[in-house]
Amino acid sequence: MKTVKGFASATVGNVACGFDVLGFAITEPGDEVILTLSDRAHTDSPVSISAITGDGGALPLDPKKNTSSFVVLKFLEYIRAHKQIDFTGHISLELRKHLPLSSGMGSSAASAAAALIAANELMGLPCSKMELVHFAIEGERVACGSAHADNAAPAILGNFVLIRSYTPLDLITIPSPEHLYCSLVHPHTELRTAYARSVLPQEISLKTATQQWGNVGALVTGLLTSDYDLIGRSLVDVIAEPKRAPLIPGFFEVKQAALDSGALGCSIAGSGPSIFAFSSSEKTALAVGNAMKEAFLHSKAHLQSDMWVSPICKEGARIL
Ligand code: HSE
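Above: the input record for the complex with L-homoserine. Below: its predicted structure, written as tokens.
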């Protein structure tokens, strides 16, 4: 018997202008996955789920339907086919969820990334982190029906990740400016990614596209040159935010509160309902986060919320 514990943190997809192509990881909170390897082959499946905590009973226990076990099954298939590792034993998986579901905080990606980093360790590190990202993306398809990589890739690799291409997958990691801090506020309400994607337009005008890719290029430049003003100016989303903002009670008040408190910029975290803001110091990020929390509370829906202030996570998924 051998036991390994993997950890992967929350991530923010889109980063305003980079719908499905840009995301980053924060340092906490995150999900933990404990894998226990035994020699004894299981009759039904090489992976079974022994326990899930922190999900309120919402997640499936069927290893083919649960994102964290599904990605481990895919990983085992891959190492059998491509790394000549024929696994005949059994892996028992315990998932400790600390991230809220349907929150826009990359909850499913964190579970998948934590499971994969642990599985890779358990099997003697046959895969690179870059290879693991492929399985984590497949997990997103199971979780919400869409194989977007802007949570899965930063959950495993850390930093900012730009997805230049999906087929073939071409990922570029971008280090964070030293003083960049994220305030992430999660209101106590759920918004399913599949639904938040269904409200988006399938086609956009050339004018809209031009605005969006101008901002993506500028945001990446701002990150690479530590130009905080440019980062702030580029946090503009003319595609997803206008359609999704009405799904988040208090969004406009929360965004205004963040900007009034000195944030560089503010937008929806992934598909929402969480909202993130960037600041150029920890002190400002704290004030911004508190103002956002207050704004949720004083909005029409009077929403309670949780708030985290964090630098960008450099490491990505790791073994605890
Ligand atoms: N890019 C995805 C979306 C992120 O906006 O639907 C989901 O967290």
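Notes for the reader.
The domain at 2-175+315-319 is CATH 3.30.230.10 (Ribosomal Protein S5; domain 2).
Residues 206-225 form the longest helix (20 residues).
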